[in-house]
Backbone:
């Protein structure tokens, strides 16, 4: 679910911070630049892991600031395809369900990936698994806020910068055609052991 990715960046330290500890200023800058942001084809950056190297600082004639080339590593959220994760149901519609991990909310389980047979309850706006219990049908609800175990089946990155055609940059299904999220995941609960965790303790 989490990986450590290496980056290289030229960090600018303003004249007002010249007396500050260099490493502390660089840490603040890198976290401000990348934390909670998606890097294309890398994933959702969470927090600085460590600094590998700080190059020589350079002050240009027209600048009061100094510039340092920094090589560092960042903790990144990017589950691999087929990985099993835990999330909670954020919302549901006839198209499927949106799940959240608490810090990442662009996880979509389409209707075709629900337990079979399932139906969408329009009145309560929840998905219902019609489980066959020795000939008797037991309705198991996937209510909002329920903890769900799911498997990652695909991911996608979309360039959402202004002026860029937000086309699919990676193969795989997308949650909806109107999605503007730069990074999203498609999951499935259509397997034994997947879905609402409470289902499998009650059966």
Residues:
């Amino acid at each position: 679910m989490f990986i450590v990715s290496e980056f290289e960046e030229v960090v600018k330290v303003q004249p007002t911070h010249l007396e500050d500890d260099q490493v502390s200023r660089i840490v603040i800058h890198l976290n401000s630049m990348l934390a909670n942001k998606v890097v294309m084809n890398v994933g959702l950056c969470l927090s600085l892991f460590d600094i590998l190297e700080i190059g020589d600082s350079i002050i240009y004639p027209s600048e009061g600031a100094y510039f340092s080339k920094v090589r560092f590593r960042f903790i990144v959220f990017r589950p691999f395809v087929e990985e099993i994760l835990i999330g909670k149901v954020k919302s549901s519609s006839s198209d499927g369900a949106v799940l959240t991990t608490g810090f990442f909310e662009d996880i979509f389980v389409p209707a075709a990936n629900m337990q079979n047979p399932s139906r969408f309850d329009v009145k309560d706006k929840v998905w219902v698994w019609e489980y066959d219990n020795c000939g008797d049908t037991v309705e198991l609800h996937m209510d909002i806020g329920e903890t769900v175990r799911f498997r990652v089946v695909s991911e996608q990155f979309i360039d959402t910068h202004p002026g860029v055609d937000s086309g699919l940059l990676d193969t795989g299904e997308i949650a909806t055609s109107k999605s503007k999220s730069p990074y999203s995941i498609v999951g499935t609960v259509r397997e034994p052991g997947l879905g609402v965790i409470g289902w499998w303790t009650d059966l």
About this structure: The mean pLDDT is 89. The chain is about 10% helix and 50% strand.
